[in-house]
Amino acid sequence: MRIDIVTIFPQFFDILDLSLLGKARAQGIIDLHVHDLRDAAHDRHRTVDDTPYGGGAGMVMKPEPWGETLDGILTDSPAADGPLIVFPSPAGDVFQQARAHEFAAEEHIVFGCGRYEGIDQRVFDWAASRARVALVSIGDYVLNGGEVAVMAMIEAFGRLIPGVVGNPASLVEESHSDGLLEYPSYTKPATWRGLDVPDVLLSGHHGNVEKWRHEQQLERTRQVRPDLYEAYTSGADAEGSAER
Questions:
Q1: What is the pTM assigned to this prediction?
Q2: Which end of the chain has fewer surrounding CB within 10 Å, N or C?
Q3: Does residue 114 have a known ligand-binding role?
Q4: What is the DSSP letter of 161?
Q5: Is 150 annotated as belonging to a binding site?
Q6: Residues contacting 145, CB < 8 A, separation 6+
């Protein structure tokens, strides 16, 4: 997969050289290109923002640096139908595990990291005439810029790309993989500071372990994320009715 990131802080993404994603880059599984938006600003001060039309506080990112940068990326896209261009935005759809799986299946994704009061609306409109565009939110709060949101999304979908995680089975039992939160995990020693590992995990009975883990998933989800629990149980009830 090819990933392009447009930002005014390219050094922020040096962290992608670490851990599993760094190994994936070294192995050629992920082809990452980080573009400094200021390289497309040709005035003395490399200006990428200006005051908003209509007045108001803050500054707005100018359209031309974005247009020039995206022109080069679109021309160089390896995807036959062009890339998916993703802009983090509070006005976008909320990023969830299902969207992470969708992103992992893309051949080429371009991320645009906004700053200040946002990007000139014409950039989104123009980009949508050239490629698929998605506005995506990672939650109902405001960040200083899109970099943290992009990093979170890359962490989420990057590990789903085949070959990135050494043991693919570990992806199956994670939180949100089946609509539930993950069960609690334990390792050696069996007793630590007066706290014991549940007996069932020491029993060697795989059927009982699997049943216990599912029960723990249900109870944890019910307590922590009742919205997910309701969706899961409603889906299970509907499936059971259909089978009958």
A1: 0.85
A2: C
A3: yes
A4: S
A5: no
A6: 7, 9, 113, 114, 115
Question: Nearest 5°: phi and psi at 25?
Answer: -65, -45
Query: What's the pLDDT at 178?
Result: 75
Tell me the pLDDT tens digit for each residue of 112-138: 999 999 999 999 999 999 999 999 999
Residue 18: partners with Cβ closer than 8 Å, 6 or more residues away: none
CA pair distance 157, 179, nearest whole angstrom: 16
Is 158 marked as binding a ligand? no
Sheet-wide strand order for 132-137: 31-36, 2-7, 108-112, 84-94, 132-137
Q: Is 194 annotated as a binding residue?
A: no
Residue partners of 114: CB distance under 8 A and separation at least 6: 61, 87, 88, 89, 145, 146
Angle, helices 97-104 vs 147-158, to 10°: value is 70
Nearest to 37 by CA among 142, 111, 129: 111
- Which structure tokens are listed for 169? 């089975």
